[in-house]
Structure formats: structure tokens, C-alpha cells
Amino acid sequence: MFSSPLFIYLATVLPPIILGIIIWKSDKFPEPGKFLVTAFMLGVSIFLPLDFLIIFSEDYLAPFLGLNLELISKWEEGGDFPRGEFAFKHFFRAAYLEEGIKFAFLIFICVRLDALNEPIDAIVYGAAIGLGYAAMENLFYLYAPDAWSLETVKTRYYPLIMHLGFGVVMGWLLSLSLFDETSKFKRTFLIILSLLIPVLFHGTYNYYGTADIFPILTIILVISIIYWARREQLKKITEAEDKNVPIISDITYAYGLTLLLVAVVVTSAILYS
Questions:
Q1: What are all long-range contacts of 5-9, with beta carbons under 8 Å and residues at least 24 apart?
Q2: What is the pLDDT of residue 240?
Q3: How far apart are CA 66 and CA 62, in angstroms?
Q4: Alpha helices by DSSP H, the chain
Q5: Residue 2 above 90 pLDDT?
Q6: pLDDT digits (tens, 9 = 90+) for 150-173
Q7: Which is nearest to 129 in space by CA: 158, 93, 104?
Q8: What is the per-residue pLDDT for 153?
Q9: How many domains is the chain built from?
Q10: Domain range enclosing 260
């Protein structure tokens, strides 16, 4: 039973959907279901632009920077550790590109919805996008050669939890900006952090491997953020037109400064190797 194709397929697809429903229902005033499904499908569709960006980064950008990503495969077979290539792969090719597309979908589509009118809403949409991406990523791994097994499914639960965490953190930091009334500088800073922190979080997780501590800390962080957001719901409900919708310059700062930090990480790894 547990090794049947149907069970393996359901064990891959259902957990992201179940987690999405749990996050959705944690909202005291749930978002319209059609918007959450749309956000989830946006996460699924990330692979469309991501594939082109990965090809560009591997075939053009990495060689331009003097990096040979084939050294990673040689290292896995017992060669020297290619620190610079490893940092490029995990902090730029994976973390920056993946979280950058999630950020674009969240900030250009979900934030514009009138239904997003309180802090927890941005968290729910961020989680939905992250879970949609995780669901599609898990299916891709499942269809790799010799990967159709329950063991493969088990190994994909850690990344599932992590992508949920990246989305929740992104939505949380963005929500602090959307509903902050103190200063323009603080709102811009929070927008930058809403991309920068998930990218660093994602890159660090990938770089150091699937250590048990990362998913455990992520679960604690997600629960803490949801608890905070539910408490905020009891204080006030903000009208949709009162949101501080990010402007293009703030979004540009977020992408630019995050890319700069990623470049510093990759350059440091190259110089240290």
C-alpha cells in the first residue's frame, strides 16, 4: 500500500494543500478561497520564469564570473569543495531567483487585492505562494530517475516546511510595512527586509544542507508569527484603501540591495576558497 504510486503521489501533493488550508483557517476573517487558490497556483507557476533564469545564470552568468558549476558534481564524487560555485548555486541561483519571483507575485498581485486588509492576510498569501512552489518542486523531484519511492517523499518534507517558512516570513515583514504609519523610511526598510531575509534564510539552509535544526526552528517561527498576527486581528481591522502599497523605488531597493548582499556572499566564498 505505502509503496503504491497513488499513495506516493498523494503523500507528495496533499501535505502542501493541507498546510495551506491550516494557515488559511488560522485567519479569523479568512480570505476568499478563490484568491488563495490563485496565490497557490502562482507558486506552482514560478517554474515557468525560473527555468529561463536558471539557464541564463548557469550558461552565461556563472561563466562570466569565472565559475564552473560542474565542479560541484566533481566535489560530490570526491573532488575539492568548490566554495564559490556552491555559494553561487545556493544563494543566487536558488535563493535569490526563487524568492525574487515569489516576492514579485506577492507584491505586484496579492498586495493589490482589496481582500488583503490586515497583517495576517499578507502572511497567508505569502504562505500560499510558498506552498504552491513547494508542491510543484516536490513533483519534479518525484519524477527524477529512480525517485518514485516513499523515501523520496520523506526527504521532500523538510523543503516543504522551509518554503512555508520563507513565504510566512516574507508576508510578515511585508505586512509590517503595509500597515505601518510611523515613517516612510521604516516602511521602505521593511520592504527590503521582506525579500532580503527570506533569501538569506533560503541560501543558508541550502548551503549547509538539510540539518534537522532548520525545519524545527522554522516550525517554531511560523507558529510564533501566526500567533502574533492573530493577536493583531483583535486590535484593529484596516480598510484596504489605507494600505501603504509599495512603490516601484522601494521594490527596486529591495531587489538591488538583496542582490548586492548575495554578491558579497558569493564573492567572499570565491576569495576564501
A1: 5/148, 7/150, 8/142, 8/148, 8/149, 8/150, 8/152, 8/153, 9/142
A2: 47
A3: 6
A4: 5-25, 33-44, 47-56, 62-64, 70-76, 83-87, 97-105, 119-142, 150-155, 157-178, 184-208, 213-235, 248-272
A5: no
A6: 666 667 788 899 999 999 999 999
A7: 104
A8: 67
A9: 1
A10: 5-272
Q: Is the separation of the CB atoms in 228 and 171 below 8 Å?
A: no
**Cell 479569523, located at residue:** 28
Cell numbers representing residue 41 in the block: 497556483
Rounded Cα–Cα distance for residues 234 and 213 (Å): 32
Q: What is the mean pLDDT of residues 21-33?
A: 91
CA 158 and chain centroid, separation: 13
User: Amino acid identity of 37?
Assistant: V
Diameter of the chain measured on Cα atoms: 58
Separation CA 168–CA 127 (nearest Å) = 5
Residues constituting the chain: 273
Q: Which three three-digit cell numbers place residue 145?
A: 530517475
113 phi and psi angles, rounded to 5 deg: -70, 135
What 8-state DSSP symbol labels residue 30? P
Task: Using alpha carbons only, give the angle 271, 101, 264 rounded to the nearest 5 degrees.
Answer: 15
